[in-house]
Amino acid sequence: MKAPLATKIGIIGGGQLGKMMILEAKKMGMVINILDPEENCPSSSIADCHIVGGLKDADAIKKLAEISDVVTYEIEHINVDALFEIEKTGKPVYPTPASLKIIQNKLSQKTRLIEEGVPSPDLLAVGSPDDLRRAGEKFGYPMMVKACLGGYDGKGNFLIKSADQAEEAFEALGGNDLMVESFVDFTMEISVLACRGRNGEIAVYPVAQNDHENEVLNETRVPANISAETSKQAMDVARRVMEIFEGVGMFCVEMFVLRDGSVSVNEIAPRPHNSGHYTIEACSSSQFDNHIRAVAGMPLGDTSLIKPVVMRNLLGDAGEDGRAVVTGVDEVLAIPGARLHIYGKAEVKPKRKMGHITVIADTLEDAVKNGEKAHKALKILGK
Amino acid sequence: MKAPLATKIGIIGGGQLGKMMILEAKKMGMVINILDPEENCPSSSIADCHIVGGLKDADAIKKLAEISDVVTYEIEHINVDALFEIEKTGKPVYPTPASLKIIQNKLSQKTRLIEEGVPSPDLLAVGSPDDLRRAGEKFGYPMMVKACLGGYDGKGNFLIKSADQAEEAFEALGGNDLMVESFVDFTMEISVLACRGRNGEIAVYPVAQNDHENEVLNETRVPANISAETSKQAMDVARRVMEIFEGVGMFCVEMFVLRDGSVSVNEIAPRPHNSGHYTIEACSSSQFDNHIRAVAGMPLGDTSLIKPVVMRNLLGDAGEDGRAVVTGVDEVLAIPGARLHIYGKAEVKPKRKMGHITVIADTLEDAVKNGEKAHKALKILGK
Predict the structure, then answer these.
(1) Which of B5, B48, B342 sits opposite A4 (nearest CB)?
(2) How high is the ipTM of this complex?
(3) Strands B70-73 and B49-52: what pairing?
(4) The pairing of beta strand B178-182 with beta strand A216-222
(5) Cis check: omega of the bond before A95, within 30 degrees of 0
(6) Are residues A326 and B5, on separate chains, in Cβ contact within 8 Å?
């Protein structure tokens, strides 16, 4: 026995989300095992046991389950059938494979939301370029075509501007398991992190305002610049999503704010999320702490905002490729309220998520200003 | 290369202080090597490399230095001569061996403070029971006898109430390297955590109010219930101590508040300190983050208090001995603003530091109340 707090957590995936889960779980003395194909993945040096294997490798997942009390994951594109097998043996898996299976496929995820009356764009399943053109007649252009499986950070999305692009979009997204959504004319992108315990307890974080660049998250600021009414609606939607999917653990509900101030769900991630990194510094319990609490069957922690906060993503710049070297660290750390997170990926690539900066301040204005200053100072170069 | 942020930190000691340093350093992607005799010490599972060896083993310390860019320590009772040797090879050691050597010995530590005009009790070196009786004539009774080397948590201290106890005290403390301090009639015990960077930058945390039980820290609350004037004096003293010892890294200055509101230094620890654990939740940069920043030569982080906070120590109760089992976890985690730290020591012993609870709240009153409730709920039993 390495630790007196008995829970042994198995995490599928050893990227930055897994790493930040471990940093919280270790505070409580838990034992953490991970499964990840990369020997030097961000979680590796702080995991108790690292099974080197593929995220979809059923045997490796089984091995992970055997040495863990509960299995969770930091990425949704994994082998859900293997998770069902683990669950059958009596070993808990959270979020449940049943909820993951629905969420993994964007068509079933969004269909479920629409059935339940959760505000989200109209959609159609498409099986051919002709289907796309028919959808265009219904929704008008532009409209968003999405691969139902496997997309993230804008990958797997294609914005069609006219019927002429039907073939191009169909080919670009691989030609099957596609869906179309009516275009949403939004004024702001927001997200709400929510957590549900094994006993149904739900904790919801405040609304985060997100700014994307080239479809990858660039900045998150909290509180969001929205009305109290919009904020309430967004948090209610997130709570409703947790109930619908009976999710256990952290979920992120990404939403659009429409011109009338109402919200529309864009996407759900059944895990801690990039737009929730701010919670490490700005909340009593971070999204990672609450994820661990939830999957371990513990009461959830306080999700209220302690201070205005800005998070800036550190991505590999265009043209940077090779061994990652971080510059500008001292400029960032000299900024009051700034904390630097470097995930520990040995190689930088363009748009790769290498770390993030969080800045808290007494006013959001100061946090925004300092976040921008910090972001400008820090560079991750490829040597 | 495991991490892109190049600094490799070597820590002598792998207890809870080392563990909490690693949890902060890992956020920035640093590589951490430790030296500790216990294979399952609290830091072991999250260190990149664990050299299993004694804290005073010069060869082991040399090995640690060889694989690290900078060497630091989480405990002051180590082999300072070995540290001087490391420094001679050009490898930086922080806090410096020169400052450690003076601080390690309470007589030289306090003599230095008195020379520099820092308020602290009168003292006398003693070499015999007769010396003790002579000190008693000068200081009156009660008076505190201290072993100059190696004491902590009240170990190495003896309160003499009359001349009759001179022989008893002399024997109990091992009979050499002893000193006597005049008794301090204090109204409160406080501590100030301070940090000094390699470039001389100093950051001082707010004053912490400490409550000891059987000479071991029981509770810390911040802000302390003292006047603005006393607070300023205490923080000035801490800053002055950092200048005197040219300390690099975190120091803790424990002080007494006297009846007139002035302060008197009790003891200095050249490392993060139990009474500074509150900084993890209640400050933007914790004492562990700032220690790492300082020894790595980085700018220091913000030390201001974000919320009122209470820290409660989790010690092994009298009579508990054996494999540690934690009970009452759910009651603690259900308290708003409560965070639980379990160090991961496999065996519990009476008075052994097994973990701590931190509670933040909007008012100190609520933090105190919730801290007490949490502390009562949690038990660490020996099975």
Answers:
(1) B342
(2) 0.94
(3) unpaired
(4) unpaired
(5) yes
(6) yes
